[in-house]
Structures are given as C-alpha cells and as structure tokens.
C-alpha cells in the first residue's frame, strides 16, 4: 500500500500566469494530489482570478512586479489569513520551485516543523536580474543570494544537465539531482475535429504552412531574432502563417516591431491560451515549432509539440536543444542569428518527408508523460523523508 503524504508546492507564479514553471507546479500538484495524498500549491494572489483546480491552492497578498508583467510580487507577511491557514497544515515535505517569497515560506515551514525541503533550479536567474537591474555587479550579488538559498535546502533538483551546469557556474557546489519535466498533452480521439475548428477560427487553409511559437514574450527567449528570421523568409518569397501564443513584458514592443516590418498580415498574436484543447490543436496544426530561445532549460513546450508529432527548430548548443538530434527528432540551427535561422526554416520546409519523419521521432523520443514523471517524484520524496527522519532521529 502506498504511503500517503501531505506535500506543498511553492512558486512565485501560478495560473493564470502561464509559463514553464507554472506548468510544472500544476502537474506536480495534480498528480501528487490524485495518487499520493494531499498536495497544496502556495503562490501569490492574482486580482480577479478564482482557482478551480482539483487540488487546494493557497494564495497570499501580492502587488504588480514592475518590468516583469504579468508576474506578481508576493507579500505573505501581510496576509494573516494565509499565514494562519498554512501553519495548520501538517506537511511531510515542501518543494520550492522559486527561491524568492514562496521559497522563503517553504523554508520557514521546513525549519519550524523539522521537515525536509526540496528546491528545483528552473531559471537563468542571472539573466533575469541583468535584464531588470541593468548593472552586472548587482545581478551577480542577487545571483549569489539565490545560491545561498539552494545551499540551505535538503536536496537540489534541476530539470536537465544544462541547468545543472549553469547552477555550478553560478557557484553552487553541492549535490544535484536531475528530475526531468513531462507533458500533460495526450492526443484526444477528436484531435482532427479540434484542428478543423482551429483552422476555421483562425482562417487557416489546408495548404497553409503554419509556424508556431508558444512561450513568455520576453526578450531573453530570442523572439526579436525570430521575427527577423520571419522577415528574412518573407523577403525570399515564402508564404506562411505564424502564430505567437503567450504574454509577457515585451509583447507590445514585439507587436509594434512586426507592424514596422509590415508582417502583420502573416504574423498573429493570440495572447495567453488557457484552453488546453485549443492549445493542443494549434501544436497539432503547426508544421514546425519555432523555439530559438537561448534562455530556457528543458522547455515543456518542445515536449508539447512532440506529443502531437510536431518537430521543433532550436539553436544548436542551447539547453533547449539538449534532446534534439538534428534531422532525426527535430532540427538545429548552428548560428544564433536571424538570417541563419530563416535559412534553416526554408531548408526544413522544402523537405516535407523529413519534416514529417522528425515529428514522428519527436513523439517517440522527446515526449514524456507527466504521470510517469510524478511516480518518480513521489519515490524520491519518500527517500528524502526517510533520510531526513533518520538524520534527525524522527520516528
């Protein structure tokens, strides 16, 4: 019989803010709560949003995070109801997915209740700090504070080898466990009908070449290069429909840049999409998923594309490209520049048979089911709890 646990997932963002880490936290909580006990999510409140998850979500007071919209800065110390509620929960283990406010809450619970804490390193924090603070010295100081946080937890996880290497570069010297991400994309029986609905909604013809980007609209994800690459293939006479899905602080500037280049008839911004069937159908209809980010670790969107047989084009040598084998289960561009990326798009679409084969191989080799990942997470939690209890002589 499985040992039931009471677990907490702590992150500084959650639905309706959709990014890779939100996706991770949501799937951790859903599957752990469904199969292995009770799992809570603790996260900043979002104005006007009402949680409808199948697991409990605990929100605390927050304010807008300037220059990082739509993210919020949590102020849990000001939220008496949250503090009163969470201290009554008899957690067995807490898991921090962010080293800031939510991570501090998880650490306080760990210390006070003498329970283990796991922390996952998800992001290139130095890049984030540099983008906001502009000054390298300040970014390095903040990065050192992040490493201090990871030095104070029981076990550190990363989602890929590349993420572990970055963590080491930041100065972390402790042990790291690699626990990969999964995907909740399952191809439904009515996928063809869903794709047809999406084609009608977006006025897509059967013969149209459809290109897709899904992710936060932030400059770190190389989205300016992506638009410039699309401009390059436009000038070469390539006909296509390009869809951007997501939100972020750079969205308005990116839209303005598209208009400046005269590409608005080819490129559409669909905003944030919470309807998973609609998102699945977009991935399924896309001929090629474009993801030139040099910022991301093990991006879930590449798995989501793979789940429906759509291959991705990434920049060679990046963490996002870690599982892609060029021309086998996806495609790589050797140079991080717009012209090279555009040329690679044209090469790929000119060989539709190889494009189709790469999508089939992506589905076999890149896609991982979240339920299987969480089975492993649960086993790791049990081992961590046992080790912690033995160390602290807790029966």
Describe it.
With 395 residues, the protein is of the alpha/beta class. The protein folds into 2 domains: 5-182 and 370-391, Rossmann fold (3-Layer(aba) Sandwich); 191-365, Rossmann fold, CATH 3.40.50.2000. It has helices at 20-35, 80-86, 101-113, 125-133, 136-150, 161-169, 191-202, 223-235, 251-260, 276-285, 300-307, 338-349, 352-365, 370-391; strands at 5-10, 37-44, 57-60, 62-64, 72-74, 93-96, 117-121, 155-158, 176-178, 210-214, 241-245, 267-271, 288-290, 312-315, 331-333. Strands 3-2-1-6-7-8-9 form a 7-stranded parallel sheet, with helices on both faces. Strands 12-11-10-13-14-15 form a 6-stranded parallel sheet, sandwiched between helices. A two-stranded antiparallel sheet has the order 4-5. α1 crosses α14 (370-391) and α7 crosses α10 (276-285).
Short description:
By secondary structure, this protein is an alpha/beta fold. Helices cover 43% and strands 16% of the residues. It has a seven-stranded parallel sheet, sandwiched between helices.
Low-confidence segments, given as residue ranges, are none
Largest sheet: 7 strands, parallel
**Count of alpha/pi helices:** 14
Instruction: Indicate the radius of gyration in whole angstroms.
Output: 21 Å
Q: How many beta-strand runs?
A: 15
Q: Order of strands across the biggest sheet?
A: 3-2-1-6-7-8-9
List the keywords.
seven-stranded parallel sheet, alpha/beta, 15 strands, globular, Rossmann fold, 395 residues, 14 helices, 2 domains, six-stranded parallel sheet
List the helices and strands and how they pair.
Layout: E1 5-10, H1 20-35, E2 37-44, E3 57-60, E4 62-64, E5 72-74, H2 80-86, E6 93-96, H3 101-113, E7 117-121, H4 125-133, H5 136-150, E8 155-158, H6 161-169, E9 176-178, H7 191-202, E10 210-214, H8 223-235, E11 241-245, H9 251-260, E12 267-271, H10 276-285, E13 288-290, H11 300-307, E14 312-315, E15 331-333, H12 338-349, H13 352-365, H14 370-391
